[in-house]
Amino acid sequence: MTDKKINKPVDPAHLTELEQKHVPMIEAPELVLTGQPFIVKVTVPHVMEQSHYIEWIKLSMHGIKLGEVNYSPSDTSTTAEFTVTIPEEVVAVKVLEQCNIHGVNVCGDCGTKSVLTDLIAVASCNVHGLWESFKRIEVMSKIQSEGKPCKWE
Questions:
Q1: Is 20 a domain residue?
Q2: Which stretches are annotated as coiled coil (predicted)?
Q3: Which of 80, 87, 137, 148 could pair with 57 in a Cys bridge, judged by C-beta atoms 3.0 to 4.6 Å apart?
């Protein structure tokens, strides 16, 4: 995304005051199906002033840019909404990245595969630089044998 140093929270469960104002907060479903659009909401709780503001928020997955929202000091909100659709190929690609012994999660009822992946949000503050966070989601293949719905334990 960029060549600049990216700040990440030292302890995501206990953010410092500086981190609380700059680390992007990602809201997304825990489980999504390939090919079905879903909403990802990214918020940076930062005050917008002429001399200190959020310049942009970017969302990516596997190094692929999913979206970007640019801001100016006059904006009153630093919340970005992205509509994301993950293609079936992501499950196939992630299968290759998984352990050759343990593989990927496979539903016992229908044999459908799923993978865990990260949505990554980066925000740019004109004073304090780049800030990153991630949210792990499960991506389930929509291809199911015999059309049965999956029951994940």
A1: yes
A2: none
A3: 80
